[in-house]
Amino acid sequence: MDSESNIFNEQLIDEFINKEIQEGFPGAALTIVRHGKVLKQTVYGYKLKYDDSETLLAEPQLLILDTMFDLASLTKMYATNYTLMQMIEQEKLNVDDPINKYLPEYTGCNQENEYRETRLVRDLLTHTAGYAPSIEFYDPEKVSSDLYSLEKQKTEQIITTKAGFQRSRGANHLPIYSDIDYMLLGIIIERISRMSIDEYVKTNLYQPLGLTHTLFNPLQNGQYQKSDFAATEIKGNTRGGTILFPNVCTHVLQGQVHDEKAFYSFNGVAGHAGLFSNLHDMAILCQIMLNNGIYGNIRFWSKNVQDLFVTPYEHDPSYGLGWRLNRNRSLQWFGLHASEDAYGHTGWTGNCSVIDPKYSLAIILLTNKRHTPCVNGIFAGEKYETGNYGKIMTLVYEAMSLDKHSTVTA
What we know:
Layout: H1 11-23, E1 27-34, E2 37-50, E3 56-62, E4 69-70, H2 74-89, H3 121-125, H4 152-161, H5 179-193, H6 197-209, E5 215-216, H7 260-265, E6 275-277, H8 279-290, E7 294-295, E8 298-299, H9 303-309, E9 324-325, E10 343-347, E11 351-356, E12 361-367, E13 374-375, E14 378-379, H10 390-399
Antiparallel strand pairs: 1-2, 1-12, 2-3, 4-6, 5-6, 7-8, 9-10, 10-11, 11-12, 13-14
Helix pairs in contact: 1-10, 2-5, 2-6
């Protein structure tokens, strides 16, 4: 059907999200890119609804198209993975190399004789190196004194020389998602490039693309102010006042990275979290993948490199190298109609990107679902479908009639 790209009933999507906004979901921003064109770029609801005391504002601040969001773990893809793909293209990195080829101090072992020297870069990308999901470097009550750190350089030294393994390398061969893996990848990038990761991506990725709203520590450069951002947690990092540690923030977070490890222990710049962006810039970043590494007249990486990163991991096909894949349809946030070739990632603050090359389609959903009251560790924003992504992804495909495979060709 030649007309398939003209079939787009976006009212289906708008009505659903607006209904949830009326019911209490704070805010969402959605971009849909198809065949290289932005089909939809819409914001819903508010960037700021509550004050520090969890009281609803008399005049909540509406989201606008330029509003920037804390990407959380989307940092892993659109900063760290993009850099790694570029470095592999430039033959500065090989995923099958031992980590200590790039970080010579990465040696030694656990008491269980789990040697750092045996770990490959690939193990970090498939989350099979054996690290715990997280280490709370910033909380002296949660870690031993030799793992406590509030400074990026010290934290990096701890990770490369002291952080132990929770399990053996490739235990049962099943991935266990870990921020530590991507912290290490960020350190590798900084060692190879001799630049901090924020400077690297700015110089080698975002500036060549003309992106002005994608950066780390955005309040520090004087260009942006709090009102340019969607707020996240209302009472800082306290989960409604239930978590306390020295220097913990207790105010509404807006333009400050929420991830505690990134903020308190990495000075806001890390391979696992810290990046901010908006709809406009995310559409361009996703289009690079749909173009197999090219945007305009710039080639960032080859199709061969990109294919390497979206090849399913043999023991869990929902993992590529960093990317999450829809191969076994085990991740509900892809929705009901994404093809088996689709890949993407989510971010804890409320973000999801799905890239589906079968349909030359990218869907970017940015929300501030954590900007809601938190009771017993659960944020009110988590109960809405918009903040769980899959329903919105399903509606996007249905709005374009891409659920009717027999009548629509890609």
